[in-house]
Amino acid sequence: MLSLCVFSDAESRLFRTIAERRRVLKNAAFYPAAGFLLSSYGASIERHQTVRRDYTIPIANLPHEADGMVIAQISDVHLGTYFSVEDFDALLTDVAAGGADLLAVTGISSTMSD
């Protein structure tokens, strides 16, 4: 006895679509868990990390008074739930201890609502 199964192109696409949908749904629980873990890492660990990068920038015709000037920049502080005013004050104290001649606070500094 011989059994023959013939699928048209439309049926074949349908079965591929169903298989793809099952694969996505099978892994669907992973995506919210990954988002939660990454957010938790950022909220509990990464927020305590300060990144310092030092650059020497040559500038033609720089006035003699400005030669050797050190400028510190703090960017995107985002004061709020995870970074308090006290944390910001401690950061400013650390930066000031580094001996900068000028401190520039740039970017978004507040995400607190009234």
Explain how this protein is built.
- This protein has helices at residues 9-26, 30-44, 85-97, and strands spanning 71-75, 102-106.
- With 114 residues, it is mainly alpha-helical.
- The protein has three helices and two strands, in the order H-H-E-H-E.
- It is elongated and about 75 Å long.
- 40% of the residues lie in helices and 9% in strands.
- A two-stranded parallel sheet has the order 1-2.
Structure described in brief:
The protein is mainly alpha-helical and 114 residues long. The chain is 40% helix and 9% strand.
List the helices and strands and how they pair.
Elements: H1 9-26, H2 30-44, E1 71-75, H3 85-97, E2 102-106
Parallel strand pairs: 1-2
Keywords summarizing the entry:
mainly alpha, single chain, two-stranded parallel ribbon, 114 residues, elongated, 3 helices
Order of helices and strands: HHEHE
What sort of overall outline do the alpha carbons produce when their principal axes are compared? elongated
Number of helices: 3
Structural Rg: 28 Å
Share of helix, binned: 40-55%
Largest sheet: 2 strands, parallel
Strands, total number: 2
**Roughly what is the average pLDDT, rounded to an integer?**
78
As a percent range, the share of strand residues is 5-15%
* Contiguous uncertain segments of 5+ residues: none
Q: What is the terminal-to-terminal distance?
A: 79 Å
Side-by-side strand order of the widest sheet: 1-2
Report the structural category: mainly alpha
